[in-house]
């Protein structure tokens, strides 16, 4: 592993650090738009007084904190970069494969380095039709074993969100709502399952997380922040999921295939919402991280 000097210095001195993934750069958007999303996320983290730690696997090393040139490599590679979950990290390092880390893989690095906050668009979870396929993202297990707050706009819209919430409850992961009583549905703020608790300030969120870790040890927390603006496109998402299923696409290829189709079916409107919520979630994660650092 190679940790960027800025990240290492922040961790040593107790300054706030926010982890960011790279899958969204290479697989989450078309035509290089993922780079802009990643850059905006890093900018929002810095604006809130924290240090961004974008994680990726490059030239046989896990990089915790990417340079601009390294980040651009994920953009240029696009879908040719391996979508790397926690299970894939060692293989990517051994084979010197360019590995774009998922939420789960990024959390596994957070656990090693002691990073307690992460911002992303949406976490992986239980896929629609899971009873037949058992397709459940490893993100959930990594969240359950990593003492970190993950700020997202809920689970990805392509998933079975109620089932994902049920599994998070089973894994003892508190699902919090940022100024909302229900878990956002990624593009849409309403219609999701009830959250375990609502939080209205960054100080309250930091305190709740601190007490949770003190009393329970290692479990993470999911904070759902409603997207602004939002886009109610559930029929479009359902159609995209159906088409991808009929095409026989399975496993890690499902999410990027569905997102690409949703982008096409919405004439690009989904992209603008996606980019904005990623930046907003990163900014909120940084504000909570700063509040936590101040109190510890």
Describe this structure in words.
With 296 residues, the chain is an alpha/beta fold. The protein has 13 helices and eleven strands. The chain has helices at residues 5-13, 23-26, 33-47, 68-77, 89-95, 103-113, 130-133, 139-145, 161-170, 202-216, 234-246, 254-265, 269-295; strands at residues 2-3, 17-20, 51-58, 61-64, 82-84, 99-101, 117-119, 149-152, 175-178, 197-199, 221-224. The mean pLDDT is 93. The strands form two sheets. Strands 1, 2, 3, 4, 5 and 6 form a six-stranded mixed beta sheet that branches. It has a five-stranded parallel beta sheet with strand order 7-8-11-9-10.
Structure described in brief:
The chain contains 13 helices and eleven strands. It has helices spanning 5-13, 23-26, 33-47, 68-77, 89-95, 103-113, 130-133, 139-145, 161-170, 202-216, 234-246, 254-265, 269-295, and strands at 2-3, 17-20, 51-58, 61-64, 82-84, 99-101, 117-119, 149-152, 175-178, 197-199, 221-224.
């Amino acid at each position: 592993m190679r940790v960027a000097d800025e990240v290492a210095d922040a961790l040593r001195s107790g300054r706030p650090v926010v982890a960011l993934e790279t899958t969204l750069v290479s697989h989450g958007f078309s035509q290089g738009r993922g780079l802009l999303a990643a850059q905006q996320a890093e900018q929002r983290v810095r604006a809130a007084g924290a240090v961004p730690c974008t994680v990726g696997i490059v030239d046989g090393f896990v990089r915790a904190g990417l340079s601009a040139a390294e980040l651009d490599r994920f953009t240029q590679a696009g879908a040719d970069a391996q979508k790397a979950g926690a299970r894939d990290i060692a293989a990517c390092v051994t084979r010197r494969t360019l590995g774009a880390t998922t939420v789960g893989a990024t959390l596994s690095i957070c656990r090693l380095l002691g990073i307690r906050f992460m911002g992303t668009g949406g976490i992986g979870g239980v896929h629609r039709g899971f009873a037949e396929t058992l397709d459940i993202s490893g993100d959930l297990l990594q969240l359950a074993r990593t003492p970190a707050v993950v700020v997202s706009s809920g689970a990805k819209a392509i998933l079975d969100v109620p089932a994902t919430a049920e599994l998070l409850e089973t894994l003892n992961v508190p699902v919090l709502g940022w100024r909302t009583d229900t878990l956002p549905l990624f593009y849409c703020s309403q219609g999701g399952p009830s959250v375990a608790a609502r939080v209205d300030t960054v100080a309250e969120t930091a305190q709740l997380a601190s007490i949770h870790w003190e009393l329970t040890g290692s479990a993470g927390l999911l904070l759902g922040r409603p997207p602004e603006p939002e886009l109610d496109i559930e029929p479009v998402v359902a159609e995209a999921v159906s088409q991808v299923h009929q095409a026989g696409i399975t496993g890690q290829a499902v999410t990027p295939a569905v997102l690409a189709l949703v982008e096409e079916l919405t004439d690009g409107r989904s992209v603008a919402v996606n980019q904005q919520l990623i930046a907003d979630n990163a900014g909120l994660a940084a504000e909570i991280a700063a509040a936590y650092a101040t109190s510890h």
